[in-house]
Structures are given as C-alpha cells and as structure tokens.
Design a protein that fits this description.
150 residues, mainly alpha, 3% strand
Length: 150
C-alpha cells in the first residue's frame, strides 16, 4: 500500500514531467520551434495547428503549464506538511485542492482527447503523453476525496 507521502511525491514527479512537456508545447505554440519532434507518422503539427489548440484565446499548452505548476505546488506543499515540515494549516487545503485540480484536469484532458479522436482525426503523441500523466495524477489523487469530509 502506498502512503500519503508516497502518493504526493509521485504526484510531484508526474506534475514536473507534465510541466516540462507542456512548456515544450507552449514554446512551440509561441513560435519558438518550427516543427515538433513527433516521430514517424506523427500528427502533432496538425493537432497543434488546429483551431482547437487554443482555449479562450490562449494556447492549450499554456493552460497546461499553469495547471501542472499549480498541481506541482500543491503536491510539494502537501508532501512537506505530510512530513511534518510545513504548517498544519497547509494540510487542510491540500487535499481539496488536489481533488479539485485533478478532476478538472482529467475532464479537460478527456475533452481534448475526444477532439483529437472525433473532430481533428489526428493524435499528437505529446498530447497523449500529457493525458496519461493527467490520468495518473487523477488516480493518485483519488484518496484525497476521502479527506474532503474531514
């Protein structure tokens, strides 16, 4: 059985990986890369160039940077408070924050994946990797929901 501290440390590592991935995609969206490294037969440029690559006028990857950074910060604060190194007041809001953020992340990621599948008819490997990371964060955050009643 994985401990609360172990789960939060895993979320830290996953959020860090997702943050680097979304920064890469965000830099591409801002024009810093001419082509994404997507491998043979990759459709990354098609997905990233579609009208769906922006949400509320801002690149989706930029939203990802913000989401992963927020999850990373909450998980780090949660891990330090779990170890007894942080203020106990932090521990009270970490569980609800991780529960809400992971739910929002998995819903938005599912929406984007559905767009790739049924609207764009192409998949970006980086986007799929981000969806898998988001799913893992959500699964690791599930025990946080039990703490919401306390």
């Amino acid at each position: 059985m994985i401990t609360e501290l172990g789960r939060r440390r895993a979320i830290v590592l996953l959020a860090l990986a997702g943050l680097f991935l979304s920064i890469y995609l965000f830099l591409y969206a801002l024009g810093f890369y001419g082509e994404l490294a997507c491998g043979a037969g990759g459709s990354c440029d098609l997905v990233q160039g579609s009208q769906w690559a922006r949400f509320l006028g801002f690149p989706v990857a930029g939203w990802g940077v913000g989401w992963y950074a927020a999850v990373l910060a909450a998980a780090i604060l949660g891990a330090t408070s779990s170890e007894g190194r942080g203020p106990a007041a932090l521990a009270r809001w970490v569980s609800p924050a991780l529960a809400v953020m992971s739910t929002g992340g998995i819903v938005f990621s599912g929406y984007l994946t559905a767009l790739e599948l049924w609207v764009i008819h192409a998949f970006c490997r980086w986007c799929v990797a981000s969806a898998v990371i988001t799913l893992a964060i959500f699964v690791l955050s599930l025990p946080e929901f039990s703490r919401l009643r306390r």
